[in-house]
Specification:
Layout (H helix, E strand, L loop, with lengths): L3 H4 L3 H7 L7 H18 L24 H7 L3 H14 L2 H15 L5 E3 L8 H14 L4 E5 L2 H5 L5 E2 H5 L19 H7 L3 E5 L6 H7 L8 E4 L9 E3 L1
Parallel strand pairs: 1-5, 1-6, 2-3, 2-4, 4-5
Helix pairs in contact: 4-10, 5-7, 6-7
Bound molecules: adenosine-5'-triphosphate.
The site of adenosine-5'-triphosphate (ATP) has 13 residues, from helix 7.
């Protein structure tokens, strides 16, 4: 109670951004408790386990959307559509073949895994950007990850795969698991993903690749970059 004013000092602003034009102090503190509870839920705990902490009284879920989902949907769909159309018209035959294979799987929710392989500068990035624009123009989620921070910088909305999927950094083996609680907001977002584009996947430890391809959260990922990666259930393009 003693520190609540300091902990919640930016929440009045956030509530105003959500349409509550004059939030009372009680609303601000209650919203703060709700956010604390959300953070604890991400690690499988809850405020109820920490008496005498008060519990939130209002249902703030209707107000506070999942920030992971909001981030992935925060694209201007009309702009994405225009960018998709520009690129789609320019695809050459091979690129169009790869694009069509992936988009059929995405649209029909087939959950296939593809590897796109080719020499440097042959237009692999061009294809996956076209896929991304199409998916985002439909209001769907395209996750872009890369095995290195530098490669992730080149992707729109890109993150490193370790950061996105909480992949263990050390001691990877065939029983390793990603540190994602299935009740977390990150897991909720992953369950809604339509396509995952994974640049430079061949740089990844083989246990990461084989586990992600059977992970129930993941419907599809789509590898770009030179190299000869193989997987029993991947289609090579
Ligand atoms: N169909 C196309 N029409 C016009 N420009 C294209 C087309 N395909 C690729 N390009 C251009 O060619 C250049 C190289 O393409 P891109 O970066 O997609 O290759 P890449 O295979 O991903 O290369 P790397 O393996 O080095 O990452 C880029 O400037 C891209 O805009």
């Amino acid at each position: 109670m003693q520190f609540r004013h300091h902990i919640c000092d930016d929440l009045a602003y956030r509530l105003r951004a959500h349409g509550i034009s004059h939030p009372t102090d009680e609303q601000v503190y209650d919203y703060g408790l709700h956010l604390l509870d959300n953070i604890l839920h991400d690690s499988g705990r809850s405020l109820e386990e920490f008496p005498p902490m008060p519990l939130p009284q209002d249902d703030w879920n209707v107000l506070a959307e999942n920030p992971f989902i909001a981030e992935q949907l925060n694209y201007d769909r009309d702009r994405e559509r225009v960018q998709w159309a520009e690129r789609f018209d320019q695809l050459n035959d091979d690129q169009r073949h790869a694009y069509n294979q992936v988009m059929v799987s995405v649209e029909q929710n087939e959950g296939q895994v593809f590897f796109l392989n080719g020499p440097g500068g042959t237009g692999k990035t061009f294809v996956y950007r076209t896929v991304c624009h199409k998916v985002r123009s439909e209001g769907w989620i395209a996750l872009c990850v890369a095995s290195s921070g530098v490669a992730a910088l080149l992707l729109k909305g890109g993150r490193t795969s370790h950061s996105m999927f909480k992949i263990p950094v050390q001691g990877l083996c065939d029983t390793s698991t990603c540190a994602i609680n299935k009740q977390s907001r990150l897991a909720d977002m992953l369950r809604r993903v339509n396509v995952i584009i994974w640049d430079e996947v061949v740089m990844q430890n083989r246990f990461v690749v084989s586990h992600m391809s059977i992970c129930p959260y993941i419907q599809i990922y789509y590898q770009m970059g030179p190299g000869g990666c193989r997987s029993h259930n991947a289609r090579h393009l």
